[in-house]
Amino acid sequence: MAAKPAIVMVHGFWGGAAHWANVITELHRRGFGSLHAVENPLTSLADDAERTRKMVRQIDGPVLLVGHSYGGAVITEAGDLPNVTGLVYIAAFAPEAGESPGGISQEKPPAAFENLAPDSDGYLWVKQDKFHESFAQDLPEEEALVMAVTQKAPLASTFGDNVTAPAWRAKPSWYQVSTADRMIHPDNERRMAERMNPRRTIELDASHASLASRPGPVTDLIEEAAGA
């Protein structure tokens, strides 16, 4: 049996690498030994893609990239490295060349769009008192509170950064749609998934934070991709 690939997980806006905690423990329980989670600066798509590339280049052997939310744009941009064998999108952006997360969101605004608030330094936040209902309505209130207080805000300009050459055009992909997502419109997720012609698309009755609320089926999809 072939050795399991390394898994590199890429977080999105308003979170950090620790958002993958439940998936990490589930992957470890299933025998995945080479697990890595990027901590993106969220300062530009170019910066975040380069941070991800640096981590991938440190790994010998095949790598499966897994992106949540804006992390999907990052793996789309950074997934062209030769040892990347596949891409898994978890309620994530999968832009085409010349598209940005912001542009996709404006086409079909998500339910929580009005709960985003810029600050005077150019960072964009999810309002703390709206975080639970916006990002993670299927998590316990206390868990969502910790996410709200520790959220990592992106520079708002990052929303407008365009993907140059989408890796999903050349690499096999898998996609998980969150049907109760309030941060990316579920129909946007379905459209992005359909056009990349993934090996499998699954739909979960989950919030945007499906990686935290539904780690079992999310890990099932990652495990399937790793086995392919």
Automatic annotation (TrEMBL):
PANTHER family registered for this protein in UniProt: AB HYDROLASE-1 DOMAIN-CONTAINING PROTEIN-RELATED, ESTERASE_LIPASE_THIOESTERASE DOMAIN-CONTAINING PROTEIN
The name this protein goes by in its record: Alpha/beta hydrolase
Species of origin: Streptomyces siamensis
Domain AB hydrolase-1: from-to ranges: 7-219
Region of interest (Disordered), ranges: 204-228
Top-level taxonomic group: Bacteria
Family annotation (InterPro entries): AB_hydrolase_1, AB_hydrolase_fold, Sec-Metab_Biosynth_Hydrolase
Keyword terms: Hydrolase
Entry's Gene Ontology molecular function annotations: hydrolase activity
